[in-house]
Amino acid sequence: MPVILGIESSCDDTSASVCVDGVILSNVIANQSIHEAYGGVVPELASRIHQQNIVPAVQQALLNAKVNKNDIDAVAFTRGPGLLGSLLVGVSFAKAFALAQNAPLVEINHMQAHILAHFIGDHKPVFPFLCLTVSGGHTQIVLVKDYFEMEIIGQTLDDAAGEAMDKTSKILGLPYPGGPLIDKYARQGNPDAYKFPEPQIAGFDFSFSGLKTSILYFIRDNVAKNPDFISENMADICASVEKRIATILLNKFEKAAKQYGIKQLALAGGVSANTGLRLGLQALCEKNGWESFIPAMQYCTDNAAMIAIAGYYKYLKGEFVGQEIAPMARMIF
Ligand code: KG4
Ligand code: ZN
Q1: Which end of the chain is more exposed for a tag (fewer CB within 10 A), N or C?
Q2: pLDDT tens by residue, 245-291
Q3: Which domain holds residue 254?
Q4: What CATH number is attached to the domain comprising 276?
Q5: Distance from the CA of 193 to the center of ligand 2, in angstroms?
Q6: Does residue 159 fall inside a structural domain?
Q7: How many Å apart are CA 70 and CA 66, to the nearest integer?
């Protein structure tokens, strides 16, 4: 019955989780609202707040799981990718904790962990499956052959899908992070009110920078004619942008599934919390007779439960790292 402590600090959420024998018993997430005022994550502030939050988050995770720190069999931590100063806090904490408890360390790739969040709970995909991993920094179609055997078959050539959401919301004057607000307004709007272009990119890669520019010019031109254009049409704009982003993602995802002959399609990463994308994947899978895997809301955005579950599977493989381990801001798999 391995007891794994998971630590996540790659961006602006400090999170700790306890996993016992593959079951998540706690998942504590401390958010950092300070970045709202700056319209994006300020790395230096994120790192400092991680330092304040990490010990209370771990204590709370142990308390919620009713697990004593002496019972921890391994400490799993996000090594990367992410902001170096933020990662450093989680990695240093994990190393110190492991040293004090004489427990082994397990390094985890944050993007793999988003995918492995599907192994929390009962509705688990069977290998091989395809995962569309969409977050603030990444947009990838991943062929998942085994727990740690994953192949990126398509990715963004410029901005990530979450970045496109966040930049659109900034253009609309909404606070950071904009994705959840675009989602909220989109629910009341007409997704066919405005047509934004779909980039023509070969293969399974994506591009979102052209879309961002077209949204910027569209808003600029309309505000020049009517200064209240945004406030009067917020719901329709958000619904139309959300539909375009979801369509770009799902069209490529469908193409990839057909080419690879895969019938199990999963979503992962912060943008998988998006209602339009979730409903879109369900509809796509129903149309093709495929099975969809959509993570529970608490496992979409950054969380340590996904690190703990990934740590559990690495623990079973006996893959540990030593105290010399350092964070990696850019980490591929
Ligand atoms: O995975 P995540 O928490 O952090 C990274 O690893 O980047 O993803 C954060 C991204 C942000 O861009 C945020 O705006 C987006 O996920 N996001 C959403 C929603 N919730 C979070 N985008 C659209 N709709 C949502 N409901
Ligand atoms: Zn993430």
Answers
A1: N
A2: 999 999 999 999 999 999 999 999 999 999 999 999 999 999 999 99
A3: 124-294
A4: 3.30.420.40
A5: 31
A6: yes
A7: 12
